[in-house]
């Protein structure tokens, strides 16, 4: 079984509800080992949109990375995700951050996630789960990657309403 870290995030509708629904679906399909707290995060790249809620989950799976990506896209669709604007508003986004220590690049998937080292909204919850995990390619720990990230967007613990 592979140990996989997934990033969950969304900024449309009931953001917290979409995270909870995504986690429930993940737990029904995989062994959900752990999940971080929820963080409210400032948008990056496409700035003219609402703030996101983000979270990282650790799962164990026998699916291949490509099959897991198909599963994640299917769940996004079931939860109302529409891909109208690149990096724009969405009900839910599920990204494969790390799949064991696998390194791969295909037409549909790159592992580790190509933006992992550039995104505070992913690194902060990942540090909560596995601060000393070494990243493939860079040989940095998650904690050291967060210390070095150039992204200064706001990431703050979310207080559930």
Secondary structure topology:
Layout: E1 2-10, H1 15-29, E2 31-35, E3 39-41, E4 52-61, H2 65-78, E5 93-99, E6 104-105, E7 110-111, H3 120-129, H4 142-148, E8 155-157
In short:
Helices cover 29% and strands 25% of the residues. The protein has four helices and eight strands. Strand 6 and strand 7 form a beta hairpin.
Kindly describe this structure:
The structure is a single chain. The chain has 161 residues and is of the alpha+beta class. Helix content is 29%, strand content 25%. The chain has helices at 15-29, 65-78, 120-129, 142-148; strands at 2-10, 31-35, 39-41, 52-61, 93-99, 104-105, 110-111, 155-157. The strands form 2 sheets. Strands 1, 2, 3, 4, 5 and 8 form a 6-stranded antiparallel β-sheet that branches. The chain is globular and about 35 Å long.
């Amino acid at each position: 079984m592979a140990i996989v870290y997934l990033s969950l995030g969304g900024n449309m509708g009931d953001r917290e509800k979409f995270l909870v629904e995504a986690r429930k679906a993940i737990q029904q399909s995989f062994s959900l080992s752990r999940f971080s707290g929820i963080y409210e995060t400032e948008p990056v790249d496409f700035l003219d949109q609402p703030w996101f809620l983000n979270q990282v989950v650790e799962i164990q799976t026998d699916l291949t990375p490509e099959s897991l990506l198909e599963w994640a896209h299917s769940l996004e669709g079931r939860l109302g995700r529409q891909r109208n604007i690149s990096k724009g508003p969405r009900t839910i986004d599920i990204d494969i951050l790390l799949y064991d220590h696998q390194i791969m690049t295909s037409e549909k998937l790159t592992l580790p996630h190509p933006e992992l080292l550039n995104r505070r909204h992913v690194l902060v919850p990942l540090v909560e789960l596995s601060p000393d995990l070494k990243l493939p390619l860079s040989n940095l720990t998650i904690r050291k990657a967060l210390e070095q990230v150039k992204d200064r967007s706001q990431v703050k613990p979310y207080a559930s309403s």
